[in-house]
Specification:
Elements: H1 4-7, E1 10-19, H2 25-35, E2 39-45, E3 48-55, H3 57-69, E4 76-85, E5 93-95, H4 116-122, H5 166-173, E6 194-198, E7 203-205, H6 208-220, E8 225-228, E9 233-238, H7 242-252, E10 261-263, H8 266-272, E11 273-274, H9 277-284, E12 291-295, E13 310-314, H10 319-325, E14 332-337, H11 349-356, E15 362-366
Parallel strand pairs: 2-5, 8-15, 10-13
Antiparallel strand pairs: 1-3, 1-4, 2-3, 6-7, 6-15, 8-9, 9-14, 10-14, 11-12, 12-13
This protein binds zinc ion (ZN) (2 copies).
One zinc ion binds near residues 165, 167, 168, 189 and 190.
């Protein structure tokens, strides 16, 4: 016979839909289950997240409140369905393997700019991910651009090509680690890395720091660089260099349409542009939109936005962009989509060399594919 304590217990089946995969939802549920003495399990499936939880009614209420009111920052809950069932007497709470079911009714999270914690590790010489451009955690990094299928598990992403090393795996399996179940988790030992090529596809370097120094030097000398970003290739030139910007206009056959630029941080932006509170809020927001702002002091070439008072500006969002801007020579860069006029941004490496080698002098690329997965509902990629 069950004891009194167990008789008080209830089981709830909670079905959560929305942007709930790839945003640290399972680790979050695991943590609040521990805090509230809840047993059962959580898993990702093609409909979203499924939670089976058992506990005292008051604990279950607390647990449910946390899910509804304090979900992880990148999660967007659209619907929660709760049904009550007979308790099975689970002894612990666990994260179970994802279920592959037929219906596909979940949303893929967008790619998200590198978070502050990852960025401080990225610039810490004692960290094992120092200057590692694919640093990521539960709160940041690529999602939409690496996924091939749902549920959102490593095996369904382009990260399946990169088996985790021992250290990464232990982070991935540790419920209190920031990288617990971070599907794109990687490090210099096991993850993707950068390559620098010239436009004849000669490999010039595979070392991130060297690539950054080379690229900063090329930019200073007015060269055009194709840089593989999160969702596709960008073409970049030194925005302060008249010759470089007009060369890009000629080669891209884009005589007048304004280019967007990128600058290091909000402090430097304020030295050269007049921005109000709202513009500042937008610029530093995690979506990293291009914001039209007015020049205060001349910095960028007049060829960037000919005959236009405002300049479209955004702040860095990938680790490599931050690294580039840590270089003292780099003040402002044109960042325009690598594409043929009117066509979508190029994300395939072969196509990039084919289509962009008569525009770009050099290519910064990496050995992870950008996926095109239009068959499922999605939120927009953050790529410009
Ligand atoms: Zn992060
Ligand atoms: Zn690793």
């Amino acid at each position: 016979m069950k004891n009194l304590k167990d008789r008080d217990k209830k089981q709830l089946k909670i079905r959560v839909k929305g942007i709930v995969q790839g945003v640290g939802f399972r680790p979050f549920v695991y943590r609040i289950a521990q805090e509230n003495n809840i047993t059962g399990y959580v898993l990702n499936d093609t409909e979203g997240v499924l939670i089976i939880c058992e506990g005292k009614p008051s604990s279950l209420q607390e647990f449910l409140n946390s899910i509804k009111h304090n979900p992880p920052p990148l999660a967007k809950i659209q619907d929660i369905k709760i049904t009550e069932h007979k308790p099975k007497g689970y002894k612990t709470f666990s994260i179970r393997k994802s279920k592959d079911k037929k219906t596909k009714d979940t949303f893929i999270p967008p790619d998200t700019m590198v978070c502050d914690e990852c960025l401080s590790e990225f610039f810490n010489p004692h960290n094992r991910r120092y200057h590692y451009p694919f640093i990521t955690c539960t709160h940041c990094g690529p999602r939409f651009s690496i996924i091939n299928d749902i549920p959102y598990d490593r095996k369904n992403t382009e990260m399946k090509e990169f088996p985790m090393c021992k250290e990464c795996m232990s982070e991935y399996l540790d419920p209190v680690n920031r990288r617990f179940h971070t599907e794109p988790n990687a490090c210099p030992t096991c993850g993707p890395h950068l390559f620098l090529y010239d436009n004849k596809k000669n490999l010039l370097s595979e070392k991130t720091d060297e690539i950054c120094d080379f690229v900063a030097d090329y930019l200073k000398r007015g060269k055009i660089i194709a840089i593989k970003g999160v969702g596709g290739y960008h073409l970049s030139v030194d925005a302060t260099n008249d010759n470089a910007v007009s060369l890009l206009r000629r080669r891209k056959n884009r005589p007048f349409k304004p280019f967007a630029i990128m600058m290091k941080d909000i402090k430097i932006v304020k030295e050269y542009f007049s921005i109000n509170e709202e513009e500042e809020r937008l610029l530093i927001s995690k979506e990293r939109p291009i914001v039209l702002i007015r020049e205060k002091r001349r910095l960028v070439s007049s060829f960037v936005a000919p005959n236009i008072q405002h300049i479209g500006l955004m702040l860095p969002y990938t680790p490599f962009q931050h690294l580039l801007f840590s270089h003292p020579d780099i003040m402002a860069l044109v960042m325009t989509s690598g594409n043929i006029s009117g066509e979508p941004i190029i994300s395939d490496d072969e196509e990039a060399f084919l289509e962009l080698s008569n525009i770009a002098d050099y290519f910064v690329t990496y050995n992870r594919k950008i996926t095109v997965f239009p068959s499922i509902k999605s939120t927009e990629s953050s790529e410009k």
